[in-house]
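fyi for ur records
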Amino acid sequence: MEALLAQPRGFCAGVDRAIEIVERALELHGAPIYVRHEIVHNDFVVGDLRRKGAVFVDELDQVPDGATVIFSAHGVARAVRDAALARGLRVFDATCPLVTKVHIEVVKMRRDGREVVMIGHAGHPEVEGTMGQADDGIYLVEDVADVDRLQVRDPERVAFVSQTTLSVDDCSAIIAALKRRFPRIAEPKKQDICYATQNRQDAVKLMAPQCDLVLVIGSPASSNSNRLREVAQKMGCEARMIGSAAELEPAWLLGRRRIGITAGASAPEVLVEELVARLRSLGAQTVRTLPGIEEHTSFPLPKGLGPARG
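which gave:
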């Protein structure tokens, strides 16, 4: 049995930055540091930060007066930001800069008098934060059927944005449907799906045809991890998502010759290393990293936290 490692995999620049913001805030201001929603969607990362003194809350009213609060990498609605400032909380914003880019697009599109269609998954924190950049005139579509049902006030003045962690192929199909329905629809100057999402999906497309089984390390709430599993399945390969090596069932490996491994953008490399070790203990003779894009993107930290690592 051989294990193949997708390249790239695991942490992206936005996740690296978000985690460093929490760690740096703990160093500078001491525990507890409050974080609205999970900083990133990974149980291992959240558990590690909780042990260091981070307190994860669902809403701002759970944050005591005078405390420090961090907004998660998924971003927040304007109303949340305004409420934090009104209370005088010390705020560090860990919103991924590529999500912030989408927020700015929504504001500009509404300012230009366009209704905005957001392509994304209902209930996801990134979607809630992005749609919360506008008071009205913004609509969510999850699939092509939603596009067919969509009713807007002026079909000539419509624009679209998308969640950054979607399936590239699924999003392309929805965009095509929007353009058929609204031929004059305006679009972002650059696609909203982030580089890391694109690169990880492309890596799985390369890897999956070579494998009998693809294992995706990620947490159930992680959109981009779920999309990696779906991409492998659409390539005709069996795929399973696991949170850690402990969730691997040896029975899954029976008769398998090549096992592919990837990790969502919020999953640390230590989880990949543990899975590789488990596969070796279960009979993997070789481990090989496939060729792929090397990422060198990095984002600065917010003011007041100093320079970013590396």
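The mean pLDDT is 97. thats all i got for now
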